[in-house]
Amino acid sequence: xxxxxxxKKVNLxxxxxxxxxxxxxAVAVNWTSIVKVxxxxxxxxxxxxxxxxxxxxxxxxxxxxxxxxxEDAKVVIDIFLHGGDPCHADFLFLGQALGTVDxxxxxxxxxxxxxxxxxxxxKTMDLGCEQGLAVNGKTEFTIPLxxxxxxxxxxxxxxxxxxxxxxxxxxxxxxxELKKAYDGKGLDMTSDEMNQHxxxxxxxxxxxxxxxxxxxxxxxxxxE
Length: 224
Description:
Layout: H1 12-27, H2 31-38, H3 44-51, E1 75-81, H4 89-98, E2 106-112, H5 116-123, E3 132-135, E4 140-149, E5 152-158, H6 167-181, H7 191-223
Helix pairs in contact: 1-3, 4-7, 6-7
């Protein structure tokens, strides 16, 4: 009887080389998946096996869009990303999707961290990885716990890669900011409805960007 196969040792050097690639793959996903990766709910193995197909070189060089939503909106979401970086395309799609949630009262502004002005603003918010988001200039929020723990009835979250937030938390943040700005009138949709809406919009914006990328590539090939 042969001995059972021994597990192969992890090659630390190879893992360190692959890590940036894995992180790039990890962010090229839909809204819910972005948060699952950011909060550690998904592992790198899951990222490799289930999401690698989402990464494409076609997304290299995408352009940062202008603001979305009314200019007089009282709630502003800043989306920090590095223009043209395929590993930041997920925040591009997320920002575009958020711009459709309540465009009369919520304005989305894309901050390209490759520019000096946005880069300096980004440093003051300690978001990490040159990407993240802020609501009305803030990344730190205190929200009620879904299930109070003794005397602890709320929690503090940070809208960063490892800030411990969920889609439901973000819904509460946005809903609360709208209520403060608009005489108690929050979002016109539930948390589940917003999550579903964002997932659908993220997918549509991703498809549109891929179509644009395909057209750019075909044009470049025709000019060669």
